[in-house]
């Protein structure tokens, strides 16, 4: 029986890496969250890393680079999705903070201070939304890269054993 390890072109490693990001994003978007979503995301990234190295002619290092780039793409997608959701949530927080700041400023009776307090409430709400989105970017990048890299190491080891390419010890004659 012929083994198919490493039979696809090395460019397919990029396809597996980006495809795993797309699949993980779709799983998160359709609502697979919690423990089950975490396990599925880990499985998707590790399987993508495994396939990126074992099923292609790419080396383990090329698979890791593909997952680094895919992690950046995953981070960008997470940033956009979380920023949109945070903007909607933070608008309500901003209205509440604006009201609280205006109430605190109303005690002084100064109209300029009231306007500044309302503006400060909006700024704090916008800053919180941006902070959450940046954290989503970093977390998604690390998550994808880390588990994709583990999958690449596993795929590389399996390919070496399947193809008999492990470095052997020189035998004495």
Commentary on this structure:
By secondary structure, this protein is an all-alpha fold. It contains four helices and no strands. It has helices at 12-29, 34-54, 60-106, 111-163. It starts with 11 loop residues before the first helix and ends in a 10-residue tail after the last helix.
Uncertain residue segments: none
Radius of gyration: 24 Å
Give the rounded overall mean pLDDT. Answer: 82
| Overall domain count | 1
Architecture blueprint of SSEs:
Blueprint: H1 12-29, H2 34-54, H3 60-106, H4 111-163
Helix pairs in contact: 1-2, 1-3, 2-4, 3-4
In short:
By secondary structure, the protein is mainly alpha-helical.
Observed structural traits:
173 residues; mainly alpha; single chain; rod-shaped
């Amino acid at each position: 029986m012929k083994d198919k390890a490493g039979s696809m072109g090395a460019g397919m490693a990029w396809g597996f890496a980006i495809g795993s990001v797309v699949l993980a994003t779709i799983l998160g978007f359709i609502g697979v969250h919690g423990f089950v979503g975490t396990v599925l995301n880990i499985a998707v990234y590790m399987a993508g890393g495994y396939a990126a190295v074992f099923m292609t002619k790419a080396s383990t290092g090329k698979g890791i680079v593909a997952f680094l780039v895919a992690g950046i793409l995953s981070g960008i997608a997470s940033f956009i999705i979380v920023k949109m959701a945070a903007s909607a949530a933070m608008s309500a927080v901003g209205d509440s903070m604006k009201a609280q700041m205006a109430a605190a400023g109303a005690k002084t009776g100064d109209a300029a201070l009231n306007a500044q307090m309302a503006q400060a409430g909006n700024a704090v709400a916008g800053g919180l939304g941006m902070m959450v989105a940046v954290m989503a970017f970093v977390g998604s990048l690390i998550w994808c890269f880390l588990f994709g890299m583990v999958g690449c190491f596993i795929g590389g080891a399996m390919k070496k054993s399947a193809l008999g390419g492990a470095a052997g010890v020189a035998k004495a004659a």
